[in-house]
Design the sequence.
């Protein structure tokens, strides 16, 4: 009996150690942030959505599964509130591009679980209606299937978009954007544009060491606060939890508070490496964590240095250079 109890306690201790390492001690490699999946884990176009973990993305049956993996046919331009002109397939579903992919040469970095959340659009039977200036092409994926491209960028749908006109994928992870008619990112986003076009497929998921993904800014009101590579203030949410890990910002919350994109530790400046990690959200996407707390940027912050999200609803707070939430102005 004692042996059994000791074995149970030992097993529990190992589990706790493993979970702790996964958050605070594990690395935050950009290759894990929906980059190339290990050999053998590739997801073919036409498979995956609606089975396994993909069920959490709103799949309702075989007809929806087929629609998510169907050819785009005639692509058209639609107006999306708050975003502008976006490209949609023949059924009105929004089409997306991934910053970690590359356009010159075309290459997809979204395999495995990523391809379940973001079903690749098959090449073939695709045409562009008037108003779409981006060239239509194709790229061979790691599993040998052909994927549609626009202006060289691989094309995807988002599994959480369930109705024509949905744009729930816009800004997810800081790396996904709807296509604009010229093949660029809808909404005016330019981050990653030049990098993705210049780097080759094997290097397209590596961060630019000259542009830190996480750094520290001196804010006159709040002191030293953590910001992302665009200078946006990063916030944590009191209703989230670091231990046990819990994500309370879901659904419509994500329209206002965008999960920060994970970064490689080589792209961190001013924050101890041990505080930086990557966590997996309930929908399978990856998010930056500081001191094990998921962090977000606020859509109400219009320029670098803005802190309009500070203290919102008494729940949202900037993070200092030691990973703690900032609840008051610095002393002295």
Sequence:
């Amino acid at each position: 009996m004692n042996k059994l109890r000791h074995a149970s306690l030992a097993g529990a201790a190992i589990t706790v150690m493993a979970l702790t390492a996964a958050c605070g001690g594990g690395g935050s490699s950009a290759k894990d942030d929906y980059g190339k999946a290990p050999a053998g884990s590739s997801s073919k176009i036409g498979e995956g959505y609606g089975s396994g973990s993909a069920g959490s993305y709103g799949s309702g049956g075989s007809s929806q599964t087929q629609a998510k993996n169907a050819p785009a046919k005639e692509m058209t331009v639609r107006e999306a509130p708050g975003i502008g002109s976006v490209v949609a397939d023949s059924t009105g579903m929004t089409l997306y591009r991934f910053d970690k992919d590359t356009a010159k040469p075309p290459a997809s970095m979204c395999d495995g679980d990523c391809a379940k959340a973001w079903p690749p659009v098959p090449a073939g039977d695709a045409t562009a209606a008037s108003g779409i200036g981006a060239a239509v092409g194709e790229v061979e994926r790691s599993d040998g299937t052909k994927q549609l491209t626009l202006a060289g960028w691989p094309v995807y749908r988002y599994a959480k978009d369930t109705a024509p006109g949905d744009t729930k994928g816009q800004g997810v992870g800081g790396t996904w954007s709807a296509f604009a008619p010229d093949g660029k990112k809808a909404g005016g986003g330019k981050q990653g544009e030049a990098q993705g076009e210049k780097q080759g497929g094997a290097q397209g998921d590596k961060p630019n060491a000259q542009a830190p993904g996480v750094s520290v800014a001196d804010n006159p009101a709040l002191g030293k606060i953590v910001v992302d590579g665009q200078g946006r203030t990063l916030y944590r949410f009191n209703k989230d939890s670091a231990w046990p890990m819990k994500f309370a910002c879901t659904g419509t919350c994500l329209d206002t508070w965008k999960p920060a994109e994970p970064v490689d530790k080589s792209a961190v400046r001013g924050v101890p490496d041990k505080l930086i990690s990557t966590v997996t959200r309930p929908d399978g996407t990856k998010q930056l964590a500081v001191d094990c707390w998921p962090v977000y940027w606020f859509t109400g912050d219009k320029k670098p240095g803005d802190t309009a999200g500070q203290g919102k609803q008494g729940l949202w707070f900037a993070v200092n250079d030691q990973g703690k939430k900032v609840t008051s102005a610095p002393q002295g």
Notes: The longest strand covers residues 73-80. The radius of gyration is 21 Å. The helical segments are 2-25, 62-68, 113-117, 193-198, 253-256. The chain has five helices and 21 strands.
